[in-house]
Automatic annotation (TrEMBL):
Location(s) in or outside the cell: Nucleus
Family indicated by similarity: Belongs to the EAF7 family.
Region entry Disordered, spans: 121-176
PANTHER family in the record: MRG-BINDING PROTEIN (PTHR13581), MRG_MORF4L-BINDING PROTEIN (PTHR13581:SF5)
Superkingdom to which the source organism belongs: Eukaryota
GO biological process terms, semicolon-separated: chromatin organization; regulation of transcription by RNA polymerase II
One of the record's GO cellular component terms: nucleus
Ranges of biased composition (kind: Low complexity): 156-170
Name assigned to this protein: Putative mrg-binding protein
Keywords annotated in UniProt: Chromatin regulator, Nucleus, Transcription, Transcription regulation
Skewed-composition ranges (Polar residues): 121-138
Amino acid sequence: MKLSGMFRTCFGIKQYSPMVDQAGLDVWNLESEIQLFHAILNHKPVGADRHFQMIYVCNLVNSFVSDPISTDDIWKKLGSLYNMEELHDSEVNPFQSKMKEFSLPEEYDSLKSLKYPRVTSNSGISVSRSPRTDSCSQKRTRKSLRSVDSNTTLASSTNSPVTTTVSSVTSREKRR
């Protein structure tokens, strides 16, 4: 049975050649080939996850045959039947996506032509804020009680009338 050239290139099918191991014995018998075809119906060893699918194929084939067949033998058998590179290239890759630059529809062209609006104060002066000068992004500092106590002693030593009420808190009271 000879297949037409177009059919051969479209589906990546090669002519049949039996697999023979080093001892000259045929590794593939009718039962193992049938099991191989049943296994590749559900688990195609092409695409991004072809090696994982091959593990399933190998396990399914070996569960039904008496002599275990290695994944290398399965790859060679599939390579003798099909053009695996063509099949791999024709497989749709679900992880590959084409990046497309976003653009607004034409109905927004009038808005795109306007200058970027700025915030203006009541006096008409435009106000622009840098994101680094926001009060949220400024680092807050913590004053210790010792610095407050030292400020009161400095203020009292300068002879200026300062009235501050600082409650002295002991370390035991802080813990409560």
